[in-house]
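Quick question, first post here. What does this chain look like in 3D?
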Amino acid sequence: MSTNASSSSFDYVYMESPFQGLGNGGHAFFAFFLLVYAATLTGNSLLLTVIITDRSLRRPMYVMLANLVTSDLIGSTATLPRIMCNIVASNAISLPECFAQMFFTHVYGVLSSFSLSAMTVDRYLAICQPLRYHTLMHNARALKVNAALASVSVMLILIMMLLIVRHSFCKEMVIHMPHCDHMTMVALACDDVTANEFYDLITKLLGLGGCLAIVLVAYLRIAFECRQRATREGQAKAVRTVVTHLLVVLIFFMSGLLIVVVHRLQKVFNMPVNVIVYLVVNFHTLPALMNPIIYGLCSADIRRAIARLVRRRVGPAE
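> Answer (accepted):
Ran it through. Tokens below.
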């Protein structure tokens, strides 16, 4: 029987994942995800607070970092609470909630890719165009870049949502994923999904492939510039300028590329679906968890800003 997304027979999607039905093991997974979510919220909220409140961080690099931090908060909040709910309560999710989760998880992926590529271009300008940097990149321009990237990300995913909600669903509403995903839901549709498949390919090429190409070209230029530096001191300064961002870039894009590669291999070698589930969870948790830690450990500016924030908070009580 075919029915549309609003009909009563298909009001819920049932998520099956390796974290369910494990008894005490499930409680251990719940505690783990709760700890990860609490650490992610705390770290990213602290990072966003110091970027907004500390005058010393009002520079283009940190203005654009605020976009990435916001994206991390969106991605982790859209996935981790639902995963924890599936472990200890019902694994059924209503279609409206499923579509809402789909929207925010895809915005996270696209906005993070865009933000990281923009930050890479900023680092390229700082190292390869130092005399023109403050003309080419300033806070007002960085804010405009943030707004443009967020707007384009939302627009791209809104189009994706319009393409999926128009479908009828006539298959068993069970997905083997920890969250609602566009192509997973497309597989449940009973009518023609060619437009969805084509648009999904376009967004992946633009959001992952295009941004990764920008990052690779920029870092190749930066590496060439470092080799041209006459002194070791100049080379070391250039490396210090990019090492923090490079770590963040590697974690995010490697997590995303692993999903794409393993998904292709899964079709060829009949790999367990749980492998994809673990990689998807990793993509939505590891970058958001590690980014505040990396910036806190590697950026002296952020460490000093956090120390000033703590002193302001505890000072009056002493």
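The longest strand covers residues 12-15.
Strands lie at 3-4, 12-15, 92-94, 168-169, 174-175.
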